Description:
The protein is of the alpha/beta class. It is 26% helix and 20% strand. The chain is built from 6 helices and 12 strands. It has helices at residues 3-14, 21-33, 47-60, 74-84, 97-100, 170-180; strands at 64-68, 90-93, 111-114, 123-127, 130-132, 137-141, 156-162, 166-167, 194-197, 202-203, 211-212, 219-225. The strands form 3 sheets. Strands 1-12-7-4-2-3 form a 6-stranded parallel beta sheet, sandwiched between helices. The two termini are 40 Å apart.
Amino acid sequence: MSKDAILGAIRRGLKRGPLPADQRAMLDGRLATHPRHLIPQRSRVSRPEQVALFVRNVEKEFGSVTRVADAKDIPGAVADYLAAQNLAPRFVLAPNPELQELPWSDKPMLEFEARRAQPSDAVSVQHGYAAIAETGTLMLPSDPARPTTLNILAETEIVVLRASRIAGAYEEAWDLLRAERTDAVTGGFMPRNVMLVTGPSRSADIEQTLELGAHGPRRLHIVLLDDDPAARSADDPTARSANDPAAPPTP
């Protein structure tokens, strides 16, 4: 059923015709401008503080974070995390070019397939699109190179995220998605699904007892690539000058 047919059925049910021109113009203007709501002051801080806030909020919500200074260190960080959790060195990998270009061969013990997740997969490695510092939340829009099943089926989810993709507030993360998801035909489109993930899955529905992994991954680990020179604090021993040729590239 087309959008016009659905809206027409709703109008008939409400016994109402098309909106008057002034009301339609008001609604179209509101949709086009994306008005801001209240933004928590805790996210209005410097870039290093935003990244630190994101990490604190992830850990507060039972997730964990490993920070790496260079993309070549990501396979090692994944291998170390799996070993620390006593997990087999096998996982399903998002078929994302940025992840597939990593030097996985440096860790020959790791075994993986680039595809959608299946119920039998124990560990997934997902590509992080963006994140929100104010709540420690990951933004994971669906995409052929970022299958949603990787966020749901595996008991352990590892997300590779660039520090440069951490926004202070939700509104800024949505701005990023709108700016990058455009086309010449419609002027803009949204993915079919956008998952906002804050920590591992959990529930306290039964006797108010917290249970991790109730509806999805039991563990959420983020490998955070420090690719944003502005987000590194001055006392960070891994911080490098933006002019340093050894500094990791920005996206």
